[in-house]
Amino acid sequence: MKPSPETLQRWQSQFAHYQQWLRDWLEPSHLAGLRPRLEFQTGVLAGFALIASILLGVTNCSTESTIQQRLDEDLNASLAEVIPADWHDNDLLQDTLTVASSEFNIGAAETIVYLAKKSGKTTAVCFKLTAPDGYSGAINMIIGIATDGTILGVRVLSHKETPGLGDKIEVAKSDWIHAFVGRSLANLTPAQWAVKKDGGVFDQFAGATITPRKSVQAINRGLQLFKARQAQLLGPE
Amino acid sequence: MFSDTYRKIALDGLWNNNIVFSQNLALCPLLAVTGTATNGLGMGLATLAVIIASNGLISLARHLIPNEIRIPIFVLLIAALVTLVDILMNAYAHELYKVLGLFIALIVTNCALLGRAEAFASKQPVKLALWDGLMMGLGFTGVLVALGAVREIAANGTLFAHASVLLGESFTFLEMTVIPHYQGFLLMALPPGGFIMLAFLIVGKRLIDQKLAAKPAEVSVPVVAVTE
Description:
The complex is a heterodimer of chains A (about 240) and B (about 230). Chain A is α+β, with helices and mostly antiparallel strands. In chain A, about 40% of the residues lie in helices and about 20% in strands. Chain A has helices at about 5-25, 30-35, 40-80, 210-235; strands spanning about 95-100, 110-120, 120-135, 135-145, 150-160. Chain B has one domain. Chain B is built from 10 helices and 2 strands; from the N terminus they run H-H-H-H-H-H-H-E-H-E-H-H. In chain B, helix 4 (about 70-90) packs antiparallel against helix 5 (about 95-105). The interface of A and B includes residues 48, 52, 70, 74 and 162 of A.
């Protein structure tokens, strides 16, 4: 339905009227008179808060899915670091199991385990673990373990260790973390699961012993978690 | 006269009244991120964007803002802007966000923004406020990059390491090794190194200012001699 020319004209004049009123209201001299009044101040503060909340709410809602997608990409990239691509043909993010892990002291009470499957058969598992007792805070890692219990790879996701000393646990800074590949609870004795200073097989860093020591211990606890939950993760053989 | 105002604002922001060198503000984000020149550049650019936007908005709304409640409104506006930048960067510049994410939130606590809102934007027209934001932001970015570069060279012997992560593959040429086979100097990568280097930079700036101030006097001497 098209409005008649008269109504259109009336709307136009009304619009022009409101426009003029707004312009007069926003005139600095008019606002100067309003500013000392308490109700104006309350209104302005409330108005700014309202605009800010609406803006933030709209942005948050409209970007939520994009951010989740980015986080999934990040997770996929880290998973690809510790599980070789030819070991699985499924989407790791979709094939997950949650296991209780509170007694293993790897950060979380429940750990999400990503299952790598090839032709429907589980070939490896992958999960995040945390060394809560690093030199200056938690060291967050991700580990990939083949079904026979040997490590496929470990990567540090985030940490707060000393730059230049403890940060050699990062793959970008040194190849220390590769020493875990192929290790398992079976091919090293419990005493060997330690840094060389403590009688084990893993290197420590000059000037930083605590960081690698705690990382080795946490990775060992991760393997123990896998051993304890093997039946639940892999199902009956 | 108009262009003189712009010139003065530019000089103030970049040198004379520089956020770090002269106002000694924003030292917390400054020392936290300047381990490398690349991080300094990223933090500088993020701050630049927020300070221009906050200056512009506050100047635009300056007649609406009563004197008694100006501080809560400034804080509200700056916090909302920073959160917006934080969310948008996380969604659309995720690689950059992973490098700078921690520091974006720090911009809220950057007192330089509140300082510019209070001292300049709330009293000046929008155009001047935007220009002031740009120049103050560029001055701040300059100091961040300079301090980051000095510390990075001293600590690792490199300059602009990982710049391609921040700026894209085409900026790989910026990444260079200044001192090959460098053993590293850990202190410079840690906060104390930041303080020490900042002190040297500020001393350097003061010395240059002294030289500049001394020059007109030297020139005026022969003029006096001639009139005698």
